[in-house]
Amino acid sequence: MLLCIDCGNTNTVFSIWDGEKFLDTWRMETNHKRTADEYYVWLSGLMGLKGIHADITEVIISSTVPRVVFNLRVLASRYFECRPLVVGKPECALPVSPRVDQGTTVGPDRLVNTVAGFDRHGGDIIVVDFGTATTFDVVSKDGAYIGGVIAPGVNLSLEALHMAAAALPHVDVTMPERAIGTNTVACIQSGVFWGYIGLVEGIVRQIRLERDRPMKVIATGGLAELFSQGFDLFDAIDYDLTIHGLRLINDYNKGLKA
Ligand SMILES: Nc1ncnc2c1ncn2[C@@H]1O[C@H](COP(=O)(O)OP(=O)(O)O)[C@@H](O)[C@H]1O
Ligand SMILES: CC(C)(COP(=O)(O)O)[C@@H](O)C(=O)NCCC(=O)O
Ligand SMILES: [K+]
């Protein structure tokens, strides 16, 4: 069985693929100090709770935090006796190479989202991932990552206001009823929520203009739902996009070896 690990700057997601379906998905806070033994105790505990007896023989990792990869590699070798595939490393092939400036690196999560988005929705799409940062990945007709946008994440924007302005409290993101807030919390929520609706609309419009063709917008990440209520921003929301892409990239690399 295959263990897929999607490590973002905020959370790390683990999911087990049994060859036909994902058995379950678990999330922990990303922390580069966590050891392989700690990961294993946590993971085996959760598997035990669900009665999952998975014989993990393969591991694939995408990590936007380079420092966590070392301990995840140790997890794979010590507990699952395998060498993990790490997206973005030369030994991990991609079905279509990214077309970006020479010498630049693309976040592995964005490469994975590109593969998954192309598989499910075809080419000429924009994948929007609401994570620590909000990323827009532009996928060409033939499935290549050809660039995109990195914007501050929703929670990051709220946190930045709270950190920088003495009188502004920490606020959770929700959809305010009106744009005109009549108290501080409502004003902040309005700024972030309506600001984000405008950001997504504006960026998508500009990308479509630059590409000069219709492009579907596929959203992923926990906050995608918040921005889809009553708005026509997305053609689809795929919460499991990144995990699906990891599975596809693992299959692709196995196919190359076979
Ligand atoms: N359904 C949700 N409602 C509110 N906040 C959420 C939800 N899902 C994720 N978040 C928050 O969004 C931020 C990004 O989450 P995540 O997608 O895990 O980021 P990353 O992939 O960068 O680690 C985190 O601060 C997380 O707590
Ligand atoms: C933009 C990101 C920080 C998003 O990461 P996340 O929000 O998922 O933690 C990550 O994709 C990254 O570090 N990218 C490298 C630069 C680039 O993709 O161009
Ligand atoms: K992510």
From TrEMBL:
Per the entry, the cofactor note is: A monovalent cation. Ammonium or potassium.
This chain's source organism reads: Pseudothioclava arenosa
Which Enzyme Commission number(s) are listed? 2.7.1.33
Q: Which NCBIfam families match?
A: baf (TIGR00671), PRK13318.1-2 (NF009844), PRK13318.1-6 (NF009848), PRK13321.1 (NF009855)
Q: In which pathway does it act?
A: Cofactor biosynthesis; coenzyme A biosynthesis; CoA from (R)-pantothenate: step 1/5
Cell location: Cytoplasm
Residues bound to substrate are: G107, P108, D109, R110, T184
Instruction: Please identify the protein, giving its name as recorded.
Output: Type III pantothenate kinase
Which family, according to the similarity comment? Belongs to the type III pantothenate kinase family.
Write out the catalytic residues in the record. D109 (proton acceptor)
Question: What does the record note on quaternary structure?
Answer: Homodimer.
